[in-house]
Structure formats: structure tokens, C-alpha cells
């Protein structure tokens, strides 16, 4: 079963998260398949840029609680998106939660339609947005992150653009992306790669400095009693025991 669809048009490779039954949650197989697709795109000289999108009404619901990837596998995937020597553009027309926001932050450019909604829901199941902070903290407004990390509130696409999570938000995401993709097609491949290297240097410094600590934190929290209660409550569609 293929979990990542692939199409190509005029040098733009589109990778589609294609597990709508699980709301494109980051399972171990999906993470591995997306990593393989990115590796192939990086080696293909005919690929000018990569669009990361989705099927169904959810871009990504975060980690698959029934079959989650190891924290280090998610770190590796996020770093791969940052490091791949082609621009990676997120195209979002649905909901994004938890780990899915890490995918957005790792992309070089991110666009969403008015139907998109966003939330850092980790605290509501007893964990923290640890690993995804590697690309998020260097690129997103710190005051806004403090609010949304700590409360798990939902916010819309214009707010996501305001705080730096998105590059652009509009009712028609393809209309927003048209001039961006045209610009990428007009740009020299080596120049794109070197320009991306300039733009991602600070993000990669964060990976080098903090990845081991945040991976350990993520593993510890997911193994905690509160996380077990939070995830069980989520799967059983009930309130967790700590709700007051």
C-alpha cells in the first residue's frame, strides 16, 4: 500500500501524504516512505522543486498514536526536508495538528487555503512539541508559540501566516502558489541549492545543538503515565483524568 503519492509537472515533484483513513498521521511506515521519496528527489536532476501536500481534509494529524515513528526517525525526516538541496513547498487545504506543524516549519515555503486550521495539541495528550520545535523555534514568532504551545488552541490560516508558520494564506491555495512555482522554475538549480543553504543555516544549527536533548525529552514524555492517560483518553474520545 502506497502512503505517499507522486506526480511531476514541469520539474515540480508533488509528494502527497495519502493515508486519509488515519488523517495522514505520521506512522512509522509513512515517515519511512516520505523519507525515501525525498531521497530520490534529491538525486534527480530533473526535479527543480518539491511540493508536499495531502489527500483528504487533513494535511497531517500529528503522530500516529497506534504506530508512531521513533523520535529519531521524525528528527531525521524534518532535517531531511530542511537539507534536501531543492526548495520544498507545503500546500495545505485542510487541518494540521501537532507533528504536522513540524513538517510545515521544515518546508522552505508554506501556503494554505482558508479551510486550513492549526493546533499544537501535544499538551492535551500529556506530551510536548519537543522534536518539532527544531524547525519551529527558529522560524516562528516566540510569543505566539508560547500561547499556542501551552494552550493547544486552534487557529486559522491568516493567524498562521502572521506568526510565520505560513508564507501565504488565501482562499485559493493554488492561485497563491502559481507565482511561487513559476519563480522556482525560472531559477537556476545550483543557485536555488546554495540560496536554500543560506536560508536554512540557522535552522540546522538548532538541529545540531538540540536534536539529541529534544529526542530524549520526547521519548521520556511519550513513556510517561500522563501520556498513557492522555493518549488513551484521546483514542476513547473522553476527557483525560487531569481535566478540572
TrEMBL record:
SUPFAM superfamilies: ClpP/crotonase (SSF52096). Pfam families: ECH_1. CDD domains: crotonase-like. InterPro entries: ClpP/crotonase-like_dom_sf, Enoyl-CoA_hydra/iso, Enoyl-CoA_hydra_C, Enoyl-CoA_Hydratase/Isomerase. Belongs to the enoyl-CoA hydratase/isomerase family. This is Enoyl-CoA hydratase family protein.
Amino acid at each position: 500500500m502506497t502512503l505517499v503519492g507522486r506526480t511531476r509537472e514541469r520539474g515540480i515533484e508533488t509528494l502527497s501524504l495519502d493515508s486519509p483513513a488515519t488523517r495522514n498521521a505520521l506512522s512509522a511506515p509513512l515517515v519511512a516512505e516520505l523519507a525515501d521519496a525525498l531521497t530520490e528527489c534529491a538525486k534527480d536532476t530533473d526535479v527543480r522543486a518539491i511540493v508536499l501536500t495531502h489527500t483528504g481534509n487533513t494535511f497531517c494529524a500529528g503522530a500516529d498514536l497506534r504506530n508512531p515513528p521513533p523520535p529519531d526517525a521524525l528528527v531525521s525526516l524534518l532535517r531531511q526536508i530542511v537539507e534536501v538541496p531543492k526548495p520544498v513547498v507545503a500546500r495545505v487545504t485542510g487541518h494540521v495538528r501537532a507533528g504536522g506543524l513540524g513538517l510545515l516549519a521544515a518546508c522552505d515555503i508554506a501556503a494554505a487555503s482558508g479551510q486550513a486550521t492549526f493546533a499544537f495539541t501535544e499538551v492535551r495528550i500529556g506530551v510536548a512539541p519537543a522534536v518539532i520545535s527544531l524547525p519551529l523555534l527558529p522560524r516562528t514568532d516566540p510569543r505566539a508559540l508560547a500561547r499556542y504551545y501551552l494552550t493547544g488552541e486552534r487557529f486559522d490560516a491568516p493567524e498562521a501566516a502572521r506568526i510565520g508558520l505560513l508564507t501565504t494564506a488565501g482562499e485559493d491555495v493554488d492561485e497563491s502558489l502559481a507565482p511561487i512555482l513559476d519563480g522556482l522554475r525560472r531559477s537556476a538549480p545550483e543557485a536555488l541549492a546554495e540560496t536554500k543553504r543560506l536560508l536554512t543555516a540557522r535552522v540546522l544549527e538548532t538541529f545540531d545543538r538540540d536534536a539529541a536533548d529534544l529526542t530524549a525529552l520526547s521519548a521520556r514524555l511519550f513513556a510517561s503515565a500522563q501520556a498513557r492517560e492522555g493518549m488513551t483518553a484521546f483514542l476513547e474520545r473522553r476527557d483525560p483524568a487531569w481535566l478540572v
